[in-house]
Amino acid sequence: MTETDVIIIGAGASGLMCAIEAGKRGRRVIVLDHANKAGKKILMSGGGRCNFTNYFVESNNFISNNPHFCKSALSRYTQWDFLALITRYQIPYHEREHGQLFCNESAKDILSMLLTECTNTGVSVQLNTSIENIEPHADSFHIKTNQGNFKSQSLVVATGGLSIPKMGASPFGYKVAQQFGISVIPTRAGLVPFSLQSDDKDKFSPLSGIAVPCIISNQRQSFKENMLFTHRGISGPAVLQISSYWELGEEITINLLPDVTLETELKLKRQVKIKNRLKTILDFYLPKRLLKCLLPEVLLNTSLQDISDRQIILIAELLHKWTIKPNGTEGYRTAEVTVGGVDCQSLSSKTMESKVVPGLYFIGEVVDVTGWLGGYNFQWAWFGIIMVA
Known about the structure:
3 domains, 7-stranded antiparallel β-sheet, 7-stranded mixed β-sheet, 25% strand, Helicase, Ruva Protein, domain 3, alpha+beta, FAD/NAD(P)-binding domain, elongated, Elongation Factor Tu (Ef-tu), domain 3
């Protein structure tokens, strides 16, 4: 049996960061992962460029049944701390909209940095290793794997959530929590496209590839971003964002003209005797194909001078408050994150240690803390730099 101070299950972003910090503190650390490569989700993120953090990080950028839980973590390891590490490794990066930060070249730069840090701190990363059993003892954990047995004083579960199963995602971390009597908040897919009801799918699938700016809302949240029509439904940043707050059977409202007050615009144009057909005027604001799906052809071909105030109000209301009920989401197959997870009430917000099982820690996506689109989930993962006892 191999004895060590700390065993970390999961060689993703949070697991590697935790290993680095523990190694810096002189702890003997072994990272175990069933995959054949470390950091697979890092490599695929951000279209291969890794949206590794955001200039603007606040607690309200995260979803949790305990919304205050992440405040301690975010204050103790900030985006500026991670940027200092990036700078030390001279990794070039750039800012996109909303403060999102991406590598200039490749996500491989981030993974290479983390693995180099692991090497420099004496951390051992063992891949192709499946956990078969975890057995608690008075002052240690015994871990049985297909590559031998291990014993450690501290055990860190950094196995991620259920999103993107083709990358090796599994419910393993939740099962470990349940084994030790730690509650798990029910999970669901987050940052995921919507599928549409059959009739809506038939109606809107020909629009596949069309993107429009919008404000998308439900009763609890609202986002202003682009929306994308797909063959299966709707996607794009706005949809991904609201999906993390959406519940099955719920309607969403979409303002297709977020920067225009259409009623006022149309009435002003009619007042100055513009005689163009409605579709000619609306073509300036929205794609022709989308307008044909939303408004009757006879109305689109009507001169603005022949459209009444009542009709203008109804047209504006439709385009500013288009309501649709998704059939569901595309699920974990395409979800970027998992909402829900190990109950924060069971963990210390300072160390992520279980309140009932000394020496047992849960970090990263396996915990019930989920970030918005835009680098927030990686920033939460970098808090894997916790002080493991």
